[in-house]
């Protein structure tokens, strides 16, 4: 899918896409010292556009910087406004949004406290991350041989760029084996999350997802937990094993990019009927109604342009 638009917000200025450049000795390029967010803007049924849970995403962006030790050199409100501005200047009705803060060119070596911190916000049109077919009929997943980060090895609550090498290895492994997505276990062997998504299982009408151990606190995850509770489902945040995943009636991924994507198969084992189940479809339909502005009880999650 093409990744392109006209302008990128770069350190407070709107610059042309092709001119948003950095030096090859940029610290983040060598040591992974960067953090980012993934956000979506949706085109609503009334013709307007709105960003989904913008405030929560930008708050997590700042939390990532605090955890890593170099927060953005801007106020939170300024980054929120810049996000809206860059969408408008690119004249996009719907798009994916990528804020990124990174340690720039200066001293080399692991300790470089005086290097500048740059911030960019890029936007571009982007459809279903795991494919429209996957959204409709579910995807095939495989448990990766790569383990998810331990909380004392990497900062798992921060979207640090360097953390995602772990995800790249897992994703490449399962894609080469013919699957759509990787599922990763934690260091004790419990299901953690996917390469870029949180995971839910459903059994006997009960909805379960992994707790905040080694996983990133997903904002779409939080949205689905809220929806499930509002709809009266019994919801648990509890660790579960691989064999519990195999025997689930339903399973699905959540994430800004993946949205709500059903899982029809794991490790060549059919999940439930092999099709999106009733709970998954109910939550998925409500989620897409919300981001399209159709559910008035959840309009507080939308920031209108």
Describe the structure.
With 305 residues, this protein is α+β, with helices and mostly antiparallel strands. It has 8 helices and 17 strands. It has helices at residues 27-31, 54-68, 76-89, 132-137, 164-176, 219-230, 242-246, 278-291, and strands at residues 7-10, 13-16, 34-36, 39-43, 49-52, 95-103, 117-124, 139-143, 181-185, 191-194, 198-203, 206-209, 235-237, 250-255, 259-266, 269-270, 302-304. The strands form 2 sheets. Strands 8, 9, 10, 11, 12, 13, 14, 15 and 16 form a 9-stranded mixed sheet that branches. Strands 1, 2, 3, 4, 5, 6, 7 and 17 form an 8-stranded antiparallel sheet that branches. It is globular. The chain starts with 6 loop residues before the first strand and ends with a strand. The model has no long low-confidence stretch (mean pLDDT 95).
**Percent in helix:** 25-40%
For this structure, the quaternary state is single chain
Shape: globular
By DSSP, the count of extended strands is 17
Q: If you compute it from the alpha carbons, what radius of gyration comes out, rounded to the nearest whole angstrom? A: 19 Å
Helix count from the secondary structure assignment:
8
Helix/strand/pairing class, anyone?
alpha+beta
Order of helices and strands: EEHEEEHHEEHEHEEEEHEHEEEHE
Q: Tell me about the biggest sheet?
A: 9 strands, mixed
C-alpha termini separation: 25 Å
Query: Which blocks of ≥5 consecutive residues have pLDDT under 50?
Result: none
If you average the pLDDT, what whole number results?
Answer: 95
Jot down its keywords.
8 helices; globular; 305 residues; 28% helix; 8-stranded antiparallel beta sheet; alpha+beta
């Amino acid at each position: 899918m093409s990744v392109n638009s006209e302008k990128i917000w770069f350190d407070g200025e709107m610059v042309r896409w092709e001119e948003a450049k950095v030096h090859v000795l940029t610290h983040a390029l060598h040591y992974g010292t960067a953090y980012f967010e993934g956000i979506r803007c949706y085109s609503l049924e009334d013709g307007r556009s709105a960003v989904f849970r913008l405030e929560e995403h930008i708050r997590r962006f700042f939390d990532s910087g605090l955890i890593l030790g170099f927060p953005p050199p801007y106020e939170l409100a300024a980054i929120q406004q810049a996000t809206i501005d860059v969408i408008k200047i690119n004249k996009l009705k719907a798009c994916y949004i990528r804020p990124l803060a990174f340690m720039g060119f200066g001293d080399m070596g692991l300790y470089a406290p005086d290097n500048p911190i740059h911030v960019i916000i890029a936007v571009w049109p982007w459809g279903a991350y795991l494919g429209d077919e996957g959204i409709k009929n579910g995807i095939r997943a495989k448990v990766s041989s790569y383990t998810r980060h331990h909380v004392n090895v990497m900062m798992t609550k921060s979207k640090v760029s360097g953390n995602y090498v772990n995800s790249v290895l897992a994703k490449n492994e399962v894609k080469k084996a013919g699957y759509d997505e990787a599922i990763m276990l934690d260091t004790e062997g419990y299901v953690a999350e996917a390469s870029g998504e949180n995971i839910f299982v459903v059994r006997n009408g009960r909805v379960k997802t992994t707790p905040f151990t080694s996983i990133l606190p997903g904002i779409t995850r939080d949205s689905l937990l809220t929806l499930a509770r509002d709809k009266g489902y019994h919801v648990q945040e509890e660790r579960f094993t691989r064999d519990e995943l195999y025997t689930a009636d339903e399973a699905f991924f959540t994430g800004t990019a993946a949205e709500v994507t059903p899982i029809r198969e794991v490790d060549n084992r059919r999940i439930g009927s092999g099709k999106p189940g009733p709970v998954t479809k109910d939550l998925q339909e409500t989620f897409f109604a919300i981001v399209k502005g159709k559910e008035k009880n959840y309009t507080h999650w939308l920031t209108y342009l």
